Hints:
4-stranded mixed beta sheet
Amino acid sequence: MSITVVGSVAYDSIETPAGRRERCLGGAATYFSLSASFFTSVRVIAVVGEDFGRKQEAVFTARNIDTLGIEHTAGKSFFWEGSYLENINEAKTHNTELNVFQIEGNSEADRQIPMFGRGRLDHLALQAASLQDFETIRERLMARAAADDFVTDFGPMLSLFFRDPDGLECEVCVENPDAVPGTFNPPGTRAARYS
């Protein structure tokens, strides 16, 4: 099984009691990809600026991480500056520059209502590679009491919803082998296969 990571690939300037580093490679997708690469194959999807070069990409490719999903665009990469001084487990943010993450004139966030106090991200969906993988994931989630037995039949897709330990709603979906072409079902439609 492989993992696709979607997130930030950034530059960080960090100060700790051990010293300060300027513009080192950072971002959640970077750290997650590198960690996961010790266990499985990884693909990373991110957007970076013109300042992200071969040296930075080599950090990923040295761990055999697929970087074809890294989009290079005009502008500077996301940048975060912070410190871990008083408590090494707590970051203090000093500066954040969205750069390529910011879309000038985009008013979408103004009309959205954040859900669950978690900002704009209220739901994360992943697609299983096969029905067998979907059923294995379902069994594991149910065994850990993270999901009930309900599988939604949306027509072309089957979905299983669960909450991660932080309360974020997540979804695992798979192509529905019983789908009837042109049929779309509303949320709450139980899949006959899992009745």
